[in-house]
Amino acid sequence: MTADVVFTGCSISDGAPSPHPGGQRRLVTVKGKRIRTVDVHAHCVVPAAEALALNHQSDNQWPNMVVTEGRLREMDAMGIDVEALSINPFWYREDRDRATEIVRIQNDSLAEVCAQHPDRLVAFASVALQFPDLAVQQLEHAVKKLGLRGAAVGASVAGSEFSDPKFHPFWAKCQELDVLIFLHPQSTPDLKKRLSGNGWLSNVIGNPLDTTIALSHLIMEGTLDRFPGLKICAAHGGGYLPSYRHRLDHGCRIKPSQCNPAIKLKKKPSEYVRDLYVDSLVFTPEALRYLAGEIGADRICIGTDHPIPWNENPVDHILATDLTDEQKIAILGGTAAKLLKLRDS
């Protein structure tokens, strides 16, 4: 039984989504063609799981962080047909038994909420990555038994980078299952003092920086070479990496003493960025157009951060961009539908 989850694995039903009762549903079209919009970056919480944590204090101040009918009405107003729900990891410093129970409650709850609204919601599994062997088991169960579409992970695990070989079994399982991994930052606590002060810089700067560091390690340590079938979608446009990716190409040339001669990448570091996926949360049409030029429009998916109101007009953000109709359709939902293995609507 899941506590505090209003809607009680996940699938997208055939046929067009039915209108949500009690609210005006925005239907998105491009050149007169109805487009199904898919949001890869949408948060939620399960209070019963949060209550078990010893090393976490909830700071959820936004309505509808617990999934309710109000959340669906907000999706309707934004023009979002499908959300892929994820829970930001807060359990990476918990012991094995506690982390196991937190993840079990969350994944069961996510499966239930998706099952009640299969045309509107899918979800990423939670996994206890501080115990990679356990995370492998949790991911396989979540995908094969609960119908979840992949896993949501932080940008590091209690200070350990994902390029550490201890995580290789997890990446191997992700590749085997052919599922999407949604990577969401958790700020950069090592810079807590410098990021304090006015402006919520721990998030505004810290989150994109956290993502940039994580992805850079995956590239430079050869993890993406080792697991070429990985499908990783990074939040907030991939952090700062897409806009400054070419600097990675010169580090070892300028300072070879800081590089491992045993690591021989198969291509230029900057080229790996185009093997990743990112969300569209970069705020202006010009920034999104630039991101598409750097990483490819077919590697971008809508990301709203819902219910946190970073971008309350995510569809207009994409439609206002100077991209082709085909590129807009890919960002609005085409790419995410393929990655999440949604049935045709």
Structural features, described:
The chain has one domain (29-339): Metal-dependent hydrolases (TIM Barrel). Helix 10 links the parallel strand 9 (277-279) and strand 10 (300-301). The chain has a 5-stranded parallel sheet with strand order 6-7-8-9-10. It is built from 12 helices and 10 strands. Mean pLDDT is 92; it is low at 1-21. It has 345 residues and is of the alpha/beta class. The chain has helices at residues 47-50, 69-78, 96-116, 132-144, 168-177, 201-204, 206-220, 223-226, 251-254, 285-295, 314-319, 325-339; strands spanning 29-30, 33-34, 38-43, 82-86, 121-123, 150-153, 180-183, 231-234, 277-279, 300-301. Helix content is 34%, strand content 10%.
